Amino acid sequence: MTKATTACADADADASISPFRIDIPQADLDELDERLARVRFPDELPGTGWDLGVPTGYLAELVDYWRNGYSWREHEAALNQFPQFVTEIDGAQVHFLHVRSPEPDAVPLILTHGWPGSIVEFLGLIGPLSDPRAHGGDAADAFHLVIPSVPGFGFSGPTRDTGWNPNRVARAWVELMRRLGYERFAAQGGDLGALITPELGRVAPESVIGIHVNAATLGFQPLGPAPEDVVAKLTDQERQRLAAIGMFAAVGSGYMAIQSTRPQTLAYGLTDSPAGQLAWIIEKFKEWSNPSAELPEDAIDRNTLLTNVMLYWLTATGGSAARIYYETGKYAQAGWFPLTRSQVPTAVANFAGDTAIRHWAEEANTIVRWSEFDRGGHFAALEAPDLLAHDIREFFSTLR
To answer: Which of 216, 219, 211, 215 is nearest to 111 (CA)?
Structure first.
């Protein structure tokens, strides 16, 4: 599939940065329509709901909306309203948004998405963070925003070699910020972004003024059984999170097992079947959004969900994105975990359903701020952008 166009398609593999604009060929959209028109849906057992995965009736209705109610061109145009660029770093094409604030003293901030997310996660934060004055905020809290697609994801994919683990991505981010002229910068990320972002504080502590994470897991919660003496000191809320971590390991981590071990086998279904790619992603938005949301679109706008899926489908990077789980596992086995302690000031924001626990977070990070929210969820940038933006502003206001 043709992915998009750049202003300098034959750029050498150097430090050059080229303007980029998304321009998906109509033939690719027509092919998607044809595939959606002939989806072969599986049978399902009666009365099982979401217990076995995405219900056939729900997915069939969502596929119909994708084909007949959703407009890619509308959302393509919305994405193209933001300045986009590509550059090659360590052998990978890196696609990113770069939105400079109108405020001259704005702090550079790099935002890193998770899986199964994308740069779409952050679109609602761009205005409030880059131009707070226009959104009822203080001009002193403005940021210059750099929002890259993680190598292997979307227009930064597919990757062309092995080894793209969180540490290597963090090193690429340091180089990206250097190329943009940002020697000192702030960093924020959720989910996979909450693995990559703390790594910035380990590989380049002299460059990172502070780290803010949400939906944090590895390095922010126990890996394996928790010692009884520690459990005895936890709050009721923390014990509930510990139980949720155990439940996730028992019944919610199947996707991680396959992506960590056989991503290539999975890639055939994700690349060949749009319904398969949709189901693989939409289940996680159902499972991980605010627990009070009955359906994914009760927490996040349906068109936004589909735009996120489109970035995987149109670039054929479902398998490539999954490989970072395999690479992270290899890196951990090679001695990355337990993590060395980051000395960079770190803030944690827990939204509804998040499971970071301060005791374990403080073992690997210098925690200086801890926020709890009963609204939002795992995809906080999409579910509660107002709360997330406010927490980011407040934290970095103490470090400017």
So the answer is: 211
* DSSP H helical ranges for the chain: 26-37, 56-68, 72-79, 123-130, 166-179, 193-203, 228-231, 236-247, 254-261, 263-272, 274-288, 296-299, 302-315, 318-331, 358-364, 380-383, 385-397
C-beta separation of 169 from 156 below 8 A: no
Which residue carries 């697609």 as its tokens?
Answer: 149
Tens-digit pLDDT string for the chain (400 aa): 434 443 333 334 589 999 999 999 999 999 999 999 999 999 999 999 999 999 999 999 999 999 999 999 999 999 999 999 999 999 999 999 999 999 999 999 999 999 999 999 999 999 999 999 999 999 999 999 999 999 999 999 999 999 999 999 999 999 999 999 999 999 999 999 999 999 999 999 999 999 999 999 999 999 889 999 999 999 999 999 999 999 999 999 999 999 999 999 999 999 999 999 999 999 999 999 999 999 999 999 999 999 999 999 999 999 999 999 999 999 888 888 778 999 999 999 999 999 999 999 999 999 999 999 999 999 999 999 999 999 999 999 999 8
To the nearest 5 percent, what fractions of the chain are helix, strand and coil?
A: 50, 15, 35
Q: Is the peptide bond before 128 cis (omega within 30 degrees of 0)?
A: no
Distance CA 125, CA 214 (A): 14
Give the residue from 19, 8, 148 showing the smallest Cα distance to 83: 19
Alpha-carbon span 335 to 400, nearest angstrom: 34
In whole angstroms, what is the distance from residue 305 CA to residue 249 CA?
25
pTM of full prediction above 0.85: yes
Tell me which residues are annotated as active site. 191, 325, 378
